[in-house]
UniProtKB/TrEMBL annotation:
It comes from Amycolatopsis rifamycinica. It comes from the Bacteria. This is DNA-binding protein. Keywords: DNA-binding. One of its GO terms (molecular function) is DNA binding. Residues 205-268 are annotated as: Disordered. Residues 1-169 form the DUF3071 domain. NCBIfam families: SepH (NF040712).
Length: 281
């Protein structure tokens, strides 16, 4: 880099004449605001002048847009400058937004009967615990709307979905108050609105079981359960013993066996009393 020396003020009164000592070549340097800021060592003013010259967006407008919720990248793209130049003016505003979001967590949600005893941060942390979300992964931010009111936003991720909840923050005594602005904010303020899903097991339909007794019969489909009532036609029942008086000629008529299919012939009374095997049949 070659060093130049100041010769003096140009005749137009707006430029400074510089000269190369080696080659005696002279240069003309405009005496503008940048030169005066450089002579004073005002680096911040130099950066501001660069933004003013390179874009149509003034530093004050940059800060207003940052305060309204835009990011450094969004403002830099709109202004047509690098993010490093925007960060110089955005940094104090970003600190203001972060501080406001922190204060809002200590504010009290507005209920139907007045401000809640618990703070916004306490209520939201409990709601996250009920739902099984990780509250430490949620992020708070804030910005100032066109009406001059601060809006606080909470961002968190549940599964693959990105969620947001917004509250209007009014600073004041005892931390101030917050009011829900959307459905997510209302749900987070009411932990009882969440109910964990129940696991319902599907029951198998009742199967009709048919009682099939195990019998030795060759035809089980004709088998029937034994009846409690005696069968009047069954001749295989036990025949009662009748005492006989020796002085009395008791002649008992011999009953004729009733022919019945698949039933044995019942012996006569004589065979029963005398133990004589009948030859009939």
């Amino acid at each position: 880099m070659r060093a130049l020396r100041v010769v003096g003020l140009h005749e137009d009164g707006k430029s400074i004449v510089l000269e190369d000592p080696a080659s005696r070549t002279r240069f003309l340097l405009p005496a503008d605001e940048r030169l005066r800021a450089a002579a004073r060592g005002d680096i911040a003013r130099l950066g501001q002048i660069e933004i003013e010259l390179e874009s149509q967006m003034r530093p004050r407008e940059i800060q207003q847009r940052i305060r309204a919720g835009e990011s450094v990248e969004q403002v830099a793209a709109s202004a047509g400058v690098s993010t490093q130049r925007v960060e110089r003016y955005a940094y104090p505003v970003l600190l203001e937004r972060s501080r406001t979001a922190e204060l809002a967590q200590s504010a009290h949600p507005v209920r139907e009967d007045g401000p809640d005893v618990q703070t916004l941060g306490e209520v939201v942390a409990y709601s996250f615990g009920v739902r099984g979300h990780d509250y430490s992964q949620a992020t708070w931010d804030s910005w100032k709307g066109d009406d001059g009111r601060w809006v606080v936003v909470l961002r968190w991720k549940a599964g693959r979905s990105d969620n947001r909840a917004h509250w209007a923050f009014s600073p004041g005594a005892h931390g101030g108050t917050v009011t829900a602005l959307d459905e997510n904010a209302e749900v987070l303020l009411d932990p009882n609105a969440y109910r964990a899903p129940r696991t319902v097991r599907a029951l198998e339909p009742a199967r009709e079981t048919e009682f099939q007794p195990t019998l030795d019969s060759a035809e089980p489909e004709r088998a029937q359960l034994p009846s409690a009532e005696p069968d009047p036609d069954d001749d295989t029942r036990e025949i009662p013993r009748v005492p006989v008086d020796p002085d009395e000629d008791a002649t008992v008529p011999e009953p004729r066996p009733k022919a019945k299919k698949n039933h044995p012939i019942v012996p006569s009374w004589e065979d029963v009393l005398l133990g004589v095997r009948s030859q009939r049949g």
